[in-house]
Structure formats: C-alpha cells, structure tokens
Specification:
Number of strands: 13
Largest sheet: 8 strands, mixed
Distance between the termini: 56 Å
Strand content: 15-25%
Strand order of the largest sheet: 2-1-3-9-10-13-12-11
Structural class: alpha+beta
Length: 475
C-alpha cells in the first residue's frame, strides 16, 4: 500500500503539472529550472518537482520481502512469470489495426492544441506494479519496453503531436527505454522529408552506440544541430561507449555541466556541478508505419486510369505529387517485376553488382535504423479500392530493406494479415463527391449506375492489410 501511495502521488503530481510552459529548459526537476532564472519565479513550471530517476532507484536500498508464500515467486518459474508480465503489460488497445482513428478520417481535421477527440483506452495493467516491491523492482521497465511509442498525427512541435505517451509527461529514464515506434502518417510525409527528420531526432545511431539520456528536462526541439549535448525532442543524449548491457537496471552515474547561474527555489545557492544517474538508451528495434484510407496520394480518385490507382514503393517518391516522381501503380508494378527478375531498382543486368541500397527515398530512411528487427506496414483503404490495395501488397512482397553499414536487411516474413471493419463515414465529402461523379459515368453490367453502399447510412467499410519484414543476414 505504501508503494502504491508513492507511485500514485507521483502520477497525480505529473497530471497536475501537465500545462506546457515553453520557457522551461534545462531543469533537474528537483531544485531549479531555467524559467526561474530568465523570467523570475514561475509557479506553473512544467518540470519543477518531477523525478528524473525511477522510483526503483530511490528505493533500491530499502528491504524487499522475499514473497516466499506467493505462488508468483515461490512456485512459478521465472520464465512463466516473465510470460505473465508480458501479457499484463502489453498494450492491445491503443492502436488496433481495425480502429477508426478519428484523426485520420480527414487530413485537415485537427488544429494545433485541439484535444476534442479522445484516444482509445490503454489496457496495460499498470496497477500490477503497485502490488508489492518485488513485482515493481522486477517489472517497472516493461510497460515501456514492451510497447511502441504511438504517433497518431504529427504536429508542428512534439507538444502538438497527438501521441501516447506525450513527451512532456515522460521522464528521461522512460524516454531512454523506448525501443519501438508506431507512426500514422500521410504518404507525402512518408516519401518527403518529414519521416526522415522525425526519425533523425530519435538519434538511432547514438542509441546504437550505447548513449545515455541526460537526467534532466529540456525545452522541446526538433532541431538537428548537435551541441555539447545532442537534442532529442525535450531530452538530451550524451555519448557513452560501453556495452548497453552494463548497469542498465540501476543507472549510470553521470556528471553534468557547470550551472553556476542556477539557484534553488527555496535557497539562494549556486550549485557548481550537477550529478545524477542516467539510463542507457535502448536501440530502436521495431517500427510500424500506418497509411490510413485518406493518407494516399490518390485516396479520393475513382478513375479507371491506373495512373490514379494506389501506389507505394520504398525506391520511389520524394514528396512531390507529380506523376514523374511519385510511385504510380504502373511504376510500382514495374519495380516489383524487376525485383522478381533478380534486379535491384536502378541497376540494370549489365551493371557490375553494386551494394543493395536506397538513395533518396523512404527506404533510405529505414536503412538509417541500424538495430531495426521488425518493420510493419499497416495499409488501409476503402472497400471499393480493395483490389488496388491487394496489388500494392502483392508488390510489397518483393521489397527488401538493407540497413546502412550492416550485413543485415529486412525481408518479407511470408505472411499477410487481412482485416476489414465498418467504421464511421466521417467528413469525407471529397471522397463521396468524386465517387458519385465517377458513378454517373460508369455503368455496371445490369445497366444501373455505380453500385451503392452495402452498409448503413453514415458508415463505410474499410480494408486493412498488414505486412511485416524481419531482420535477416544479407545474401
């Protein structure tokens, strides 16, 4: 009960301080924040009083009952207990593939700061951590390690991203433990520079090299310019070249830069040096990319022209809507045919064998994640574009994703997961208008005009395909 009270009070404090203050920067959470130095005492400081270390580090020297009479510890083998933890702490409801994401039904729906639509509830059994210290000390990292960081829609800054969890509620040690990303985005963001810039801020290379996350809070940023400490959203990355496996549970002692101008809220003091413990950053090993029904270049088109059908390929596209650059369906099928014939996109059979790599497409952004083990694509469209989506999936089976400076690549695992669901029609006037216009010009075999919907008014049926790529040694 005492542990539950301590965890609960910390959660309540964090919720109370959720208001974003863009003056808060370089704070240790306990004594000072730069907002005090530059702007005087700010009562609504977003970082003051927040812990930079997990409770596990604070209570690690306190006694822990052996739980000899608990079946969870006395009878069940460790492997079974780990399976129970995995079941309890894996989130199955935050971003299901057949969920009608309200932020994706219209690409123009939400303005910055508009939180009118609630996210789906998470089913992570966090309360299990409150049962006893033995469970907490064994499993406190798992709710983050087992689940991806979900991005439902990009904003101009991280505080405007619709995501779970929000960056401003994370502690440095929690940010360090994130090892999976689940990103919903438009095709223009996938093929343009938005996805690449976003992934760069996660500092995959530094995480691969065993960097640590500084045990302080900083001002949010999507800056790509490294300094003495490397920015990563509202955290900072510090190089650390030892093995990632060393001292990962209890943290590493670090000594941060001189802060002689900072002072405590309660005392006029100037600490010359700040010390703390930091968590080693986990490498990014899992990535999910989602294209919803309205995210494709040609989502609202109903033309019989194959140039206006759905198209996607990791070797094509630069964010330009023009047919010469974007992956049209004919170009996608041509690239797939080349791969089936044993050629790599852009290399003719007469060429000397060259390294298999992408250069300036979204496939090149995937290649920059050196520790990636799984790439998952969740692709959705309207039911009347089902055949177009299946053509995309048929081509996607030929794709491979070589990793830069690695002897590994990601290849299709041989399976395709198929789902369909009925969801709200939403505000898709553009789609309905073009569909109606197309129906007026297309006769079906019975002589009637284009077929009508087979579901209730106000709803629509959607098709979802899930294809995954697994890490394997390059041939």
């Amino acid at each position: 009960m005492q542990l539950q009270t301590r965890i609960g009070s910390q959660q309540a404090e964090n919720i109370q301080r959720a208001t974003f203050n863009n003056q808060c920067d370089d704070s240790d959470g306990a004594n000072f924040c730069e907002c005090q130095l530059l702007h005087g005492k700010i009562d609504r400081c977003m970082y003051y009083g927040r812990q930079t270390e997990p409770l596990a580090w604070i209570i690690e020297d306190e006694p822990v009952l052996r739980q000899d009479k608990s079946p969870l510890f006395a009878l069940i083998p460790t492997e079974v207990r780990d399976a129970i933890y995995a079941y309890a702490f894996t989130d199955c409801t935050s971003n299901p593939p057949d969920w009608d994401n309200p932020y994706r039904d219209n690409p123009y729906r939400r303005e910055e700061g508009d939180n009118r639509v609630d996210l789906p509830r998470s089913d992570i059994a966090v309360n299990l951590l409150c049962t006893c210290r033995a469970v907490y000390m064994e499993a406190y990292q798992l709710p983050i390690l087992l689940n991806p960081f979900n991005v439902y829609k990009f904003g101009n800054l991280p505080s405007y991203d619709i995501c779970r969890p929000r960056f401003v509620t994370l502690a440095p040690w929690q940010f360090a433990l994130i090892q999976g990303l689940d990103i919903s985005l438009q095709q223009v963001a996938l093929e343009g520079d938005k996805l690449g810039k976003y992934l760069t801020i996660w500092r995959a290379k530094e995480r691969h090299d065993g960097a640590i996350i500084a045990p302080r809070f900083y001002q949010e940023s999507r800056s790509l310019r490294p300094g003495k400490v490397i920015p990563s959203f509202n955290f900072r990355v510090l190089p650390y070249l030892r093995s990632r496996s060393s001292t990962s549970l209890h943290g590493l002692g670090v000594q941060l830069g001189v802060k002689s101008t900072f002072y405590s809220r309660n005392q006029n003091e100037s600490p010359l040096m700040q010390q703390g413990r930091a968590m080693i950053a986990r490498p990014l090993t899992h990535l999910t990319l989602r294209l919803s029904r309205t995210d494709w270049w040609t989502w609202s088109d109903h033309s019989d022209d194959p140039m206006r059908h759905l198209g996607l390929d990791p070797a094509a596209g630069d964010g330009d809507v023009g047919d010469k650059m974007r992956p049209t369906a004919p170009r996608m099928m041509q690239l797939a045919a080349e791969r089936r014939a044993g050629s790599w996109p852009g290399q003719s059979k007469s060429d000397e064998p060259l390294p298999r790599r992408y250069t300036s497409s979204w496939g090149a952004q995937i290649a920059k994640l050196p520790d990636l083990k799984t790439l998952e694509l969740v692709l959705e469209t309207f039911s009347d574009k089902k055949s177009q989506l299946d053509t995309v999936i048929d081509c996607a089976k030929t794709w491979a994703f070589p990793l830069d400076n690695q002897k590994y690549e990601l290849v299709w695992d041989g399976k395709v997961e198929m789902k369909s669901y009925q969801g709200e029609q939403g505000s898709l006037q553009t789609y309905d208008a073009t569909r109606a216009s197309h129906a007026r010009h297309v006769q079906n075999p019975t002589g009637a005009q284009g077929s009508s919907s087979q579901h209730d008014p106000g709803t629509r049926r959607y098709e979802v395909r899930i294809i995954r790529y697994r890490r394997t040694r390059s041939q």
